# Entry
Amino acid sequence: MLRMCYFFMILPILLCSSSMGVLNLFQEVKMVEYYYNGEQFWLTNEQQEKFDNIFCDALKDARQMPAYGVSLDDYTQKAFKSGLWIKFIYNDTIVKSEMPFDCLLLNVCEDCHGINLIRGNDGVFEGRCFYLDLEGTLDDVYQFLLDAKERHSQSEVELDFEEKALSEGDQNLEDIDEEGDKESDQNSAPPDENILKSSKEILDHLI
# Structure
C-alpha cells in the first residue's frame, strides 16, 4: 500500500506567527505524523492543506508560558498508545529557550485551552515541555483529524477488500486451469484393459 509522507508546509505556520514568538517552534519542522491509539494514519495533500489552516487558526494569539509540565519517558510512551497525537519531526536537533529537541509531541484533546509540547530526543520524551496558552481550544483540530482518521480507515478497508477480491480471482483462475489440466489428462489416458477386451469379444461375436 502506498504510504504518503507529507513534508510540512512552513509558510502557513509562519503567516500566523507575526504576533507571537511561540510558533517559531514549528519553523524548521520537516515532517508531521498522526497517530490514534498508537496506530499511525495519513492525510491526503488536500486534507493536509486544510489541517494547516485549522491548526494555524487554533494557535492564533496563543502565548508561550513558562513550562508547566515535565514529561517522563515511560509515562509518555504509555500515554501515546491511546488518544490522538501529532508528532512534529525535525531533521536536526533544535534548541529553543535552552531546551533541545528533535521532535515535538502533542496530545490533541477536546476542550483544551492550553497545550504541552513534549520534547523528544533520539526517541526519548523526557524533560520540561513547551506550554502554549490558547485563546480558544483545539476542538476543530481534534474533530478534523478524527474525521480524517475515519476516512483513512475506510480507504484501507476498501483497498484490502479489492486486494482480497483480486487474490480470490487469481485463485479461481488457477483452480479452473487445474481442472482443465485434469480433464485433459483423463481424456488422453490410455484405454482400460477391460474395455479393450470387451470390444474384442463383441467384434469376434459379430464375425
In short: Residues 10-158 form one domain. The CA atoms of residues 166 and 172 lie 10 Å apart.
